[in-house]
Specification:
The protein is built from 8 helices and no strands. With about 170 residues, it is an all-alpha fold. About 5% of the residues have low confidence. Keywords: Membrane, Transmembrane, Transmembrane helix.
């Protein structure tokens, strides 16, 4: 409920990045807590706090924000299909993690969350370099930002030339 108000204040991209980084730090803290649990009994508290923080950061960023961004990145026509694909990917990944986690935990032991930390780092870097801020922008502004990033200057000149020849 609070996310609706928070996302309008802080922006989608910044909350998404903060959530990913918080989850990354929490995953590292869980790994440290599990590795050192046999040496220090109080590390169980570190692991518990890290789990709670992981969930909190998920609910601040990667939980709700992708739904905002997907809805804002697509125009009215392809939006339902994009949301369907995003939902399928979300549930498929949740299913895979749920079905495989125990086997991976048995294989990796206390280092199981290193895999999550590595993936979160990749997601953070991708979001930092590729995901635009969509707060307060129309679909046309977001699409124009993507066009400026993806098309090199030569292609833009060619498009202008083609448009000029169509008008003639």
């Amino acid at each position: 409920f609070l996310q609706v108000f928070l996302v309008e204040k802080a922006g989608r991209r910044s909350l998404f990045l903060a959530g990913l980084m918080g989850m990354l730090i929490s995953a590292v803290a869980m790994t440290v807590g599990l590795v050192l649990l046999s040496q220090f009994a109080w590390m169980s508290y570190v692991s518990m706090v890290a789990i709670f923080l992981f969930v909190i950061f998920f609910e601040v960023g990667p939980g709700p924000i992708p739904w905002f961004i997907v809805a804002e990145l697509f125009s009215q026509g392809p939006r339902p299909a994009a949301i369907a694909v995003a939902g399928f990917c979300n549930w498929a990944c949740n299913f895979i993690v749920g079905m495989c986690f125990q086997y991976i935990a048995d294989l990796c032991g206390p280092y199981v969350f290193v895999i999550f930390a590595a993936l979160l780092l990749v997601f953070f870097l991708f979001a930092y370099f590729k995901v635009p801020e969509t707060k307060g922008k129309s679909f046309e502004e977001i699409a124009a930002a993507f066009r400026r990033k993806k098309l090199p200057a030569k292609t833009m000149t060619e498009l202008k030339t083609l448009r000029g020849s169509e008008e003639a």
